[in-house]
Design brief:
CATH architecture of one domain: 3-Layer(aba) Sandwich
CATH class of one domain: Alpha Beta
Radius of gyration: 19 Å
Order of helices and strands: HEHEHEHEHEHEEEEEEHEEHEE
Strand content: 25-35%
């Protein structure tokens, strides 16, 4: 696991805006570890992901709550066989994700959702590791979870046992913080200094992915000038963000719904 953050851009006068996503992600090499914001299909940096797909980078390790769906979000990278390893908490509706995992084509470190969030926050805060009660008494702590299968369905790589320790009469398991080479996030508003505001459910893993990336790139739906954001409303300070990509109106409007549920019509009226 990567440790420690790289040098940050601290000069508040720096304009971090890059107009085109392809230019913003152009130096992400194959083999990188990338933290990606979003939950399901909510708040995912879809424009940056599409640009990364077009760049040809492969052999990627991705840290994200889930892996999109078959034809959107991280699912595009997965279908193109660009992802070598996933650290996530939810397989979701992505059938190709399940197929690659069970066929031994993809290594998957399934992590409890709250633990994954805290591992990302810890990495971004300079905390090497922390103890949590989540997973105590399960294979999360004792090891043996299948990270990768072989072609015959056997376990090729299993999770290792983790240190446990007693505090105040309860057992806790040690979890390591996550630091990624790059962070990709999507914000509702952002200014040229990289200060970000997330809207509603998009404020999920996005602030965490921004924190734990050594170099973080944010696509923003609404770009404003420095000073226009109320400091009390900023969710991610610009110190965590090195590049800002303003979206066009069309790009900002293109959002998918992972699963749509409607009610039946009873008695001639909508219910």
């Amino acid at each position: 696991m990567l440790t420690g953050r790289g040098p940050l851009t601290l000069n508040p006068a720096v304009d971090k805006v890059i107009q085109h996503a392809a230019d913003a992600i152009g130096d992400i090499p194959s083999g990188s570890t990338i933290a990606v914001g979003g939950f399901g299909l909510c708040g995912i940096p879809s424009v940056l992901i599409a640009a990364l797909l077009d760049s040809g980078a492969d052999d990627l390790e991705v840290v994200s709550n889930n892996c999109g769906v078959d034809d959107w979000g991280l699912g595009l990278l997965l279908n193109a066989k660009r992802i070598r390893r996933m650290v996530s908490s939810y397989v979701g509706e992505n059938r190709e994700f399940a197929r690659q995992y069970l066929a031994g084509e993809l290594e998957v470190e399934l992590t409890p959702q709250g633990t994954l969030a805290e591992r990302m926050r810890a990495g971004g805060s300079g905390i090497a590791a922390f103890f949590t009660r989540t997973g105590v008494g399960t294979q999360v702590a004792t090891g043996g979870l299948p990270w990768r299968y072989d072609a015959e369905g056997g376990v090729a790589v299993a999770s290792p046992a983790k240190e446990t320790r007693e505090f105040r009469g309860h057992d806790y398991v040690l979890e390591e913080g996550i630091v990624a080479d790059f962070g990709l996030v999507r914000a509702w508003k952002g200014d040229r200094h990289g200060n970000l505001v997330f809207r509603d459910s998009a404020r999920n893993f996005n602030p965490l992915a921004a924190m734990c990336g050594r170099l973080t790139i944010a696509e923003v739906e609404v770009l404003v000038e420095p000073g226009e954001l109320d400091p009390n409303e900023v969710h991610t300070p610009g110190v965590f963000v090195q590049r800002v990509v303003p979206l066009t109106a069309e790009q900002a409007a293109e959002k998918r719904i992972e699963k749509r549920t409607t009610t039946s019509t009873i008695g001639g009226g909508a219910q």
